[in-house]
Design goal:
Layout: H1 2-41, H2 47-64, H3 71-88
Helix pairs in contact: 1-2, 2-3
């Protein structure tokens, strides 16, 4: 019984460490992109603002690029674009 508790705790700690490492790995390119946006826009852009800007860019691409998209799907992408722009400002 005691061995089982030790194994479970060890597994939970390993999982938490893995999640932390993945989070840092994903954050690294976003930080680089934030630095790029800061240079281009000539003002400091945080990682959170960078994520919002990326969301707006992806929403724009989803709304504009697929030419043969059904109307309801296009309307949903345009709504996503409007919401993402409003949250970015």
């Amino acid at each position: 019984m005691n061995n089982e508790m030790t194994i479970r705790r060890s597994t939970a700690i390993d999982l938490a460490e893995a999640v932390k490492q993945v989070k840092e790995t994903v954050k690294t390119p976003v930080k680089a992109l934030a630095n790029y946006y800061s240079r281009v826009l000539e003002e400091e852009i945080s990682v959170k603002q960078t994520a919002r800007l990326l969301t707006a860019q992806v929403a724009f691409l989803c709304a504009v690029l697929p030419a043969d998209m059904p109307f309801a799907m296009r309307a949903a992408c345009v709504a996503w674009l409007v919401v993402s722009i409003k949250t970015w400002r």
